[in-house]
Amino acid sequence: xxxxxxxxxxxxxxxxxxxxxxxxxxxxxxRGTVRRASYPHTERVDHLLxxxxxRDPQCPFKLMYADLTDVSSVRNAIEECQPDEVYNLAAQSHxxxxxxxxxxxLEINALGPYxxxxxxxxxxxxxxxxxxxxxxxxxxxxxxxxxxxPFLPQSPYxxxxxxxxxxxxxxxxxxxxxxxxxxxxxxxxxRRGLNFVTRKITRGIASIVTGEMQTLALxxxxxxxxxxxxxxxxxxxxxxxxHHEPDDFVIATEDTHSxxxxxxxxxxxxxxxxxxxxxxxxxxxxxAEVPALLGDASxxxxxxxxxxxxxxxxxxxxxxxxxxxxxxxTMESARVLAQKLRKPxxxxxxPANVVPMAKAS
Length: 361
Ligand code: NAP
Ligand code: GDD
Hints:
Elements: E1 5-9, H1 14-25, E2 29-34, H2 46-51, E3 61-65, H3 71-81, E4 85-88, H4 95-98, H5 102-123, E5 128-134, H6 156-175, E6 179-184, E7 187-188, H7 197-209, E8 216-218, E9 224-225, E10 228-229, H8 230-242, E11 248-251, E12 257-258, H9 259-267, E13 278-280, H10 298-304, H11 312-325, H12 331-339, E14 355-356
Parallel strand pairs: 1-2, 1-4, 2-3, 4-5, 5-6, 6-11, 7-10, 8-13
Antiparallel strand pairs: 9-12, 13-14
Helix pairs in contact: 1-8, 3-5, 5-6, 7-9, 7-11
Bound molecules: NADP nicotinamide-adenine-dinucleotide phosphate and guanosine-5'-diphosphate-alpha-D-mannose (GDD).
């Protein structure tokens, strides 16, 4: 078992929670940063907080306060836990919202990594640094995308992640630091934030089945994404950091589906036709879109021996089951409830500001 210490920024996020579980299972001492405002919202790691006694100085799992916009808090976190490995997962991670909060997105996602890298450089320690880079950096570059594909970011988020990608490389090249990038394609789970499209859909279906919601409003349904399971991807990033030399890797399933496909494949699990429930609203469309993501993860397969375990269909099922379970339902009981919702024909009256997808061009 390892005696290493890992510092995970953004531990209360989707990926942070899965990575913490993985590293604890490997014997690591795990320290994770949360922001002041996140503290009451630690649902994804509450099971870990309960399992370990934080008052014990040797406790393998502890949270600490740090904000990537506050360099003193970044330094404190690094000085206090003296990590062997830093996994920088903290970010303003919503692409759509980055068009509204561009400045803070750049501040957190681009300057935040710089603050960590600069602090690590000054300590002179041999700490390994992992940067959570993103397929959003490929933007308008046509699929399939791999490590050689040009970056053409389409959003402030994409630009912020591209900047952080290059800052990570610069620290590797200029100072010989062990600084690596994982270029991860979309990965989802029952712990996915509520305003990302997959979770919005599976939670929406659960609310429709229980009668709490009648319709689900979405934006562009034509975009395609290479969706994997977040748990599988944490194993990949751990392998990136364990590799004998720092490098950059694409992590993806090599399978792509449109939002429309995801709607069809999840609504059909409870025998419903998504066309009867989904509305298209302009407010969920973005000023610029990344039309199609499909990763080529052959380098990770070849060098790291990594491949995803969970299929797209298993992911759809896992996410919907979890959202149904939160409402006291199983897939079977949801199907029974859904029978009453099946529409014989699409003759419903829609509010003036929404267009039923079946009629939208
Ligand atoms: P997430 O659920 O949104 O988690 C991000 C975490 O960062 C949150 O816990 C958030 O804390 C924290 N954070 C935000 N601003 C911060 C700041 N100023 N200082 C410190 N912490 C801050 O995102 P995720 O899906 O787990 O993704 C993890 C990382 O991978 C992100 O960097 C994301 O951009 C990147 N990524 C994700 C995907 C994907 O498909 N999931 C793909 C490629 C790359 P609060 O709870 O306080 O907001
Ligand atoms: N969020 C959201 N909400 N997206 C919608 C909606 C909606 O109502 N309707 C359609 N979409 C479309 C978006 O326009 C986009 O094309 C696609 O669904 C996926 O959107 P998100 O789930 O928000 O993910 P993303 O691809 O923009 O970004 C995620 O993946 C990146 C990696 O490629 C995030 O996790 C990023 O942090 C990550 O870097």
